[in-house]
């Protein structure tokens, strides 16, 4: 998995360096091309140049292809093509794919794989048609440019990439409810995860008999509940904190819609309908929390994932109530899953802290806005990179070479997941032959 993503980044960077991909017909600096390719494959959206103006049409298409590869998963897409032409998967291939998708059963894996790709292209096509139609009918664009812009932003939204051809992201279109709602729908569906979409479409909701209707998996129920809670909490808090600040120029109905959009986009989408540098410190902290959690497993989103936070919260509640077993929705959660969730949380926090500390040492950027310190902007940038979100206060282009390399590393680690990298770097789990005597350690 690491090699596949690294190879895609390297190939994308080489292509973006070519004069053909530059709007001015010049060679793109290698570090700029590498940063853009890393951000695209890791579906982050952070850029050091303006994509719509700096890159030519071929360059933008390369970025779009990298976003699709990164969002859908290089191995998933490659294996789907093999299955499509009739090649059977080997046992090792199936286990690797199961690990990439988070699927614990070999039976039905081929069906899940095909549905994953079909879901992706069907939803992206629907989003393209809605966005294009709206750009033509409400904003006076011709069908050709509208289809291209609609397709680019539909793929970017579903893949939770946040790349935009518009200089101000979607600030100029924030009064258009159709465009905002279409983008939000794509972001949420892409962030739920393919397993959840597969589970939801497998349930026969119209059947009265429970056995005939089917049952949602525990994973699906946790994802839906946690995502709903985070979405509603983020919506209400953003509206409360920014009602008289960045939302002030809008009508009351528009404020609620933009607040909802700003609660959805930190779930690793990266589009912004307000000036991020103008947000209050409390709102920036709220956004960083949502970015760090991110979306759900087996999705196009990043972060430590909603299920990680849900499992840890259930573990805390179980401990407070003096219970040994962690229970969620009438089902017990294994101790191994709890340990993995704790490991992901700690590794994610360590990654963010390490990159932030190095940025403080190596970078001396100017604060992007009054009332916002350079340290705050660097921390926001670090969390955004690790969560593969792409939201920025505008400090990215001001970073030096060392800072850009650090942000690229944060994006790469955030996309693959701290636990995945730990398992790749570390040894495989070995059977413990020697068991040592226990002794009490005082904590807290």
Descriptive terms for the model:
444 residues; two-stranded antiparallel ribbon; 19 helices; 62% helix
- Helix-strand sequence: HHHHHHHHHHHHHHHEEHHHH
* Integer average pLDDT: 87
How helix-rich are the residues, as a percent range? Answer: 55-70%
How many domains? 1
Neighbour order of strands in the largest sheet: 1-2
Which class do the helix and strand fractions yield? mainly alpha
Distance between the termini: 38 Å
Could you list the spans in which at least 5 consecutive residues all have pLDDT below 50?
none
Contiguous helical run count = 19
The number of strands is 2
> How large, in whole angstroms, is the Cα Rg?
22 Å
Largest sheet: 2 strands, antiparallel
Strand content: under 5%
Shape: globular
